[in-house]
Design goal:
The chain is α+β, with helices and mostly antiparallel strands and 274 residues long. It has helices at 13-22, 36-41, 78-83, 85-90, 92-99, 104-107, 112-117, 124-131, 149-152, 231-241, 252-266, and strands at residues 6-8, 27-30, 49-52, 62-65, 69-73, 135-140, 143-148, 153-155, 158-159, 166-173, 180-186, 197-203, 208-213, 220-221. It folds into 3 domains: 6-52, Uridine Diphospho-n-acetylenolpyruvylglucosamine Reductase, domain 2, CATH 3.30.43.10; 57-175, Uridine Diphospho-n-acetylenolpyruvylglucosamine Reductase, domain 3 (2-Layer Sandwich); 178-269, CO dehydrogenase flavoprotein, C-terminal domain (Enolase-like, domain 1), CATH 3.30.390. It has 11 helices and 14 strands. The strands form 4 sheets. It has a 5-stranded antiparallel beta sheet. Strands 11-12-13-14 form a 4-stranded antiparallel beta sheet, sandwiched between helices.
Length: 274
């Protein structure tokens, strides 16, 4: 039986901030609903208040600025990112990653912000955004703060968001626009499945990075590498940040092996001419 809760639907950021402050620790956020509704149905969570943020316009949409980069509203759904002209032109890695999320039905419901806030080690958008050095903007009545995505995840299902705060948007820096990229995702089956291992790589004229999912308690990213770093150096940097485990889906050794295989497969793609 579904636990009863109070449903709230603020229409502005300020109204939301007030509700988050008033019901701190008693409320959960509803956006796409692809995770929270499952948790409610299975009685894994029992919040007193469910706050629906889909009507808040400030959290919607995608825009590109030549100085700041790509701004993605937290409630932007995956299919809108896939179709966005600026994302396709400047950050095709994100379009590729969004295509890999779930089924068509999920891509029409799941939000980019929700995918990050779930803080799953295998979250599909995590490794691609990490490779692109993205940041997140978090807001509350106290103001806004921007933190690097690599500092956002603090553990499985845990982030830096406090109980009175909300993720408002994701920012992908302009200097990563046009980056050479590649992504690989290992699944048990074709079609809709979560990643056993995922690897995203991005390279510009100034830097190279590798984002990895399902190889640690959170999605992880390498240190900034020289743009022409050798394959050996890249593999070494990846080894420093991954810490996979054995579980029912894959062994630690298999994850390590496939991570290296993916890096070796993507690496030459980063040096091909357009």
């Amino acid at each position: 039986m579904l636990q009863e809760f109070n449903y709230l639907a603020p229409k502005s950021k300020n109204e939301l901030y007030a509700q988050l402050k008033k019901y701190s620790g008693k409320a959960r956020i509803l956006a796409g609903g692809t995770d929270i509704l499952v948790e409610l149905h299975n009685q894994w969570v029992a919040p007193e208040y469910l706050i629906d943020i889909k009507k808040i316009g400030d959290f919607q949409g995608i825009s590109f600025d030549e100085d700041e980069g790509l701004s993605i509203g937290a409630t932007t759904v995956c299919i809108d990112l896939i179709k966005d002209r600026n994302a396709k032109k400047h950050f095709p890695l994100l379009v590729d990653a969004a295509h890999r999320i779930g089924s068509p039905q999920l891509r029409n419901r799941a939000t980019i912000g929700g995918n990050l806030c779930t803080a799953s080690p295998c979250a599909d958008m995590g490794c691609s955004l990490l490779a692109l050095n993205a940041s997140v903007e978090i807001g509350s009545e106290e103001g806004t703060r921007v933190i690097p995505l690599k500092e956002f995840f603090t553990g499985p299902k845990k982030t830096q968001i406090k109980k009175h705060e909300i993720l408002q948007r994701i920012i992908v820096p302009a200097e990563m626009a046009g980056a050479k990229f590649g992504m690989q995702k290992l699944k048990r089956i074709k079609g809709h499945d979560i990643a056993l291992v995922s690897v995203a790589m991005a390279r510009t004229a100034k830097v190279m990075r590798v984002g990895i999912g399902s190889c640690g308690p959170t999605p992880v990213v390498t240190e900034d590498l020289p743009p022409r770093a050798s394959l050996r150096a890249v593999v070494k940097a990846v080894k420093k940040v991954v810490s996979p485990i054995d579980d029912v889906r894959a062994s630690k050794d298999y994850r390590l092996f496939m991570t290296r295989q993916f890096v070796e497969a993507i690496y030459p793609e980063l040096f091909k001419r357009s």
